[in-house]
Amino acid sequence: MQQREPAAPDDDVVEVLMQQHGVIHNLFDEVRASGAEDRQDAFSRLVRMLAVHETAEEMIVHPLARSAVPGGSGVVDDRLTEEASAKEMLSRLESLDPGAPDFLPLLDDLRLAVLTHARAEERYEFVKLRESTDAATRTRLATALKAAEAVAPTHPHPGINTPTENLVAGPVAAVVDRVRDAMRRANADAP
Amino acid sequence: MSFNPLAEKGIPLDDQIRDWRELGVAPVDPDATHPYTKCRIITMNAIEVESVFFGHHFSRFCTDRAVREHLAHTRYIEQQQQKVVNWLLPGTASVLETTISYEQQAVDLTAWLARHEPDPYLKQSYEFAVLEDFDHLYRYANLYEMIEHRQAEKLVDGLTEVMPGRPTAWEHRHPVDNVRDPYDKATADPRSKLHTLTLVAAEQQVMNLYMNVGPLYMEPIARQLYQEIALIEEEHVTHYESLMDPDETWWERLVLHEYNECYLYYSFMQQEPERRIKAIWELHLAMEIEHLRLAAEQMRRHDRRDPEEILPPEIPETMVFEPNKAYLRQLLDTQIDLTTLGAGYVRESHERFERMQQQIHRGEQPPSEQVIDEHRARFGREYRLQTEGEHPDPRLREPETTPA
Ligand SMILES: [Fe+2]
Ligand SMILES: [Fe+2]
Ligand SMILES: [Fe+2]
Ligand SMILES: [Fe+2]
Ligand SMILES: [Fe+2]
Asked: Quick one: which of A166, B82, B187, B218 is 20 to 30 A from B244 by CA?
């Protein structure tokens, strides 16, 4: 098996994606552990992180895997099916009150679906992506991904009133738009 | 009224074969499952794997067709039990997460057995080795944060501390110094025989896991760390198996294997909080009771001896997964510097040890040290989980660092 070229970890899009998988898993833990009063807040942060992550994957990672990885388009189709069903669960969850009795069981379903999906990406998509792309491409995409993450921080500093804070409080659709813009800009800046 | 597996009635062997529906167990929840439930799963998997390989070896040395048929039959059942037990592990857990559970299991299993071991030489042998798996947990936990960006605390849940043990670099001894002296089967306490067998099974499974999954990693540091620790697990298997009396007959060993399965399923049944998993331990106990009865019958026939001669008069105190923090800290305080010389333990390093260290390290940092260095370079600190304060050994406290 080919060993990966050493790159500074944060400069590799695959590293950043895996890091985000870790953050998402941690956020699920936070929602599960939170009491009724904090649950909405923790859940909102989870939803935003999911939006940032999945949007970025849909815009840049999956298309790249489709073209660069042998057999990539089948792999990506499978991932998109998983993402679609997770999105469905997510929108059902968003329509519920976090204190509702079926909220936590549904959250468990979503958690297991997202974890399974993330593990499948890591095993069947990212591994191959790392083999079939060069370090420069992965660095450029890492930058784009980090720019996207910055427009939708998951842990805002309390008491600081900035445009970012407004965004954090805004609807997920707005987050997705901002992520898309950031990704396009980052892509356009590429050499 | 204590439990005696020899006096119980089990499930007839012919009724023990399971269909696909029964084999198709749902995995446990990777986040919501108690860490010690995972440890029990990992232990029972190791026990079943040992039981399968023991059956294969026995068969290879056996000329009696009827016996070989009997072994083939029970071995198939043990394989199905292994499938049910090990398939409880969730595929969403990464290999590294499973590895961390394995080391947590090794630590708290070995510590409990050491605490309950009646023989001082055996106890010393368990205490010696537990500090090494304790160190592996710390090395893998640092790799885990580096690769998966999660902290091992999520897995061990504060039940087991994560900090250096006997540094893995020092664990590479000359192979000759891993061969201990065996207990004497005539005088050994039956509990000692069970404890040793359990540790052989557990370490053998750890060794097999690492030697097989290590090369599936891409990250050079992960590949190297698995390779290094897999070699220590080879030492541990040598260490524990050499404690068993080589004069035990095949029938004695078979009876001990089956009794030990009864003992552990019975133990785990008592403490299992997950109902569905508890039902599996109960079912398997009922199967093992019949395996034991059949093995005992064969021992009487072939060895012309009573199995009661080698078994405990009543089921020993049940084995429990529980935190062993104070005990481990006391060992960390007193036994870090131990190494082995021949069958014994010494505090001073000796020529053969020095030569082995030189041959394998060549004066360079092994992967187990590199993983900590790389982690520090990236995060400005190590990953540790010290719930009970500073490391007992001042040499192994975390050095001051500047934030990355
Ligand atoms: Fe993902
Ligand atoms: Fe078994
Ligand atoms: Fe170990
Ligand atoms: Fe070990
Ligand atoms: Fe058995």
From this structure: B82
Q: Is B92 on the interface with A (CB under 8 A)?
A: yes
Report chain B residues whose CB lies below 8 A from the CB of A149. Answer: none
**CB neighbours of residue B62 within 10 Å:** 14
Please name the residues between 29 and 58 in chain A that touch chain B, using a CB distance below 8 Å. Answer: 29, 32
The 10s digit of each residue's pLDDT in A56-86 is 899 889 999 999 888 889 999 999 999 999 9
Map out the domains of chain A with their CATH numbers: 9-189 (1.20.120)
Q: Is B157 on the interface with A (CB under 8 A)?
A: no
Q: How far apart are CA B154 and CA B176, in angstroms?
A: 39
Of A1, A18, A32, the CB nearest to B149: A18
What is the pLDDT at residue A4?
39
Question: Region A90-109: what's the mean pLDDT?
Answer: 94
Nearest to A44 by CA among A179, A174, A169, A177: A169
B window 272-331, beta carbon within 8 A of A:
none
Are the C-beta atoms of B382 and B403 separated by less than 8 Å? Answer: no
Q: Give yes or no for B149 touching A (CB within 8 A).
A: yes
Rounded distance from Cα B241 to ligand 5 centre (Å): 20
User: Tokens 């189709």, residue?
Assistant: A77
ipTM exceeding 0.90?
no
Minimal-distance CA residue of chain B relative to A8: B378
Residue A50 is predicted with a pLDDT of 93
What is the residue whose two structure tokens read 């260490």?
A: B239
A92 vs B: CB within 8 A: no
Torsion angle defined by CA atoms of residues A138, A144, A150 and A154, in that order, rounded to the nearest 10 degrees:
-60
> What mean pLDDT, rounded, does chain A reach?
82
Helix, strand and coil content of chain A, in percent to the nearest 5, comes to 80, 0, 20
Tell the burial category of B276 from Cβ atoms under 10 Å away from its Cβ (0-12, 13-18, 19+): exposed
Q: Tell me if A108 and B29 make a contact (CB, 8 A cut-off).
A: yes
What does the alpha-carbon distance between residue B205 and residue B200 come to, in Å, rounded to a whole number?
9
Q: Which residue has tokens 């965004």? A: A167
If you search the block for the tokens 């029938």, which residue do you land on? Answer: B251
Is the model's pLDDT at B24 over the cut of 60? yes
Query: How much is the average pLDDT of B261-283?
Result: 98
Token duo for residue B249: 């007959």
Predicted TM-score (pTM) of the model is 0.91
